[in-house]
Amino acid sequence: MARPTPVPSEADVLQALRAVHDPDLHKDIVALGFVKNVRICGGSVAFQIELTTPACPVKDLMKGQAERAVRAVPGVEQVAIEMTARVTASRPVLGDSGTIPGVKNVGAVSSGKGGVGKSTVAVNLACALQRSGARVGILDADVYGPNVPLMLGLSGRPTAVDRKIVPFERHGLQVMSMALLVAEDQPVIWRGPMLHSAMRQFLFEVAWQDLDYLVVDLPPGTGDAQLSLSQQAHLMGALIVTTPQDVAVLDVRKAIRMFQTVNVPILGVVENMAWFTPPGHTERYHLFGEGGGERIRREFDVPLLGQIPIEMPVRPGGDRGTPIVVAAPESAAARALCEIASKVAQRVSVLNAG
Questions:
Q1: Cα distances (Å, whole numbers) of residue 348 to 62, 87, 130, 318
Q2: 3-state DSSP call for residue 196?
Q3: Taking the domain 94-353, which CATH number applies?
Q4: Exposed, middle or buried: residue 332 (CB in 10 Å: 0-12, 13-18, 19+)?
Q5: Tens of pLDDT along 312-349?
Q6: Are 113 and 247 in contact (CB under 8 A)?
Q7: Domain residues of the chain, as ranges?
Q8: Distance in angstroms (rounded) separating the CA atoms of residues 237 and 232
Q9: Among 1, 11, 245, 257, whose Cα sits 20 to 30 Å from the Cα of 223?
């Protein structure tokens, strides 16, 4: 007489899934609470794995490990896994008037000097996070040289509802910038207190809606804007943009030390304009030198999250309001930026779990 086919239980499935670990949080996915909605019908098993970010770089690896683990349970014939995500929030973002409604994580993109492509990185980082499935906003806090509206193809004046400024929307992003509040050719000549007030307005008086990440594009350097943001908002971290040459690396050191002084974690360093490969060729030409990002990684023990090559479509895409991540997602620069976005999201999840 044939033995009856065993029927797997939820306890069996969960025990098998304890063999699957998150490589960053160093715990199994059951202990972390990632496994949701387990359903068993005979030999068919279905469940969800809810990650801490849709940009998780090991999502497919984790799904494969989970499927193999459950298939090994006696009686299991079919496995269906739905990968979902719920971005974790950093500690409450506090300012003089309380929390920022609708914002889970605030992160700064900064540089020690101008001309390194900081705003280009910030805009494309925001687009890459949005394309991964997250809800993302970008705040152009570079009040003296706001370029984000140009890079996103935005113009006009924002409206207000219930005494809150309504952010613009473009490429799936919520956007606010000083450039949308003043005439195009009008310079902003402000001292510290006025800048502090404007920063507070951008943070607390904009109707941000259900954002997983608010990317803040800061002006270059280590001045009032950086200090105002650090004092008024709880930053989950700062991403530092450099180019390979020594003069950029020198200023990056100052930017990192400034954020360390105000207790803002460094998410990592991005080396922009790392090399140029002519169309149809494979050789890399290091127009701005080599190794700047790696030197920063070794000196400060912060991760080098990626190197972005120089590609011709990046410039016209920014001028026309279509970032490279949107205009040419298969390009080398876009792929590098998407990988950086995944690593940023990964770092945020780890910091929030700490």
A1: 19, 9, 15, 27
A2: helix
A3: 3.40.50.300
A4: middle
A5: 888 888 888 999 999 999 999 999 999 999 999 999 99
A6: yes
A7: 10-85, 94-353
A8: 14
A9: 245
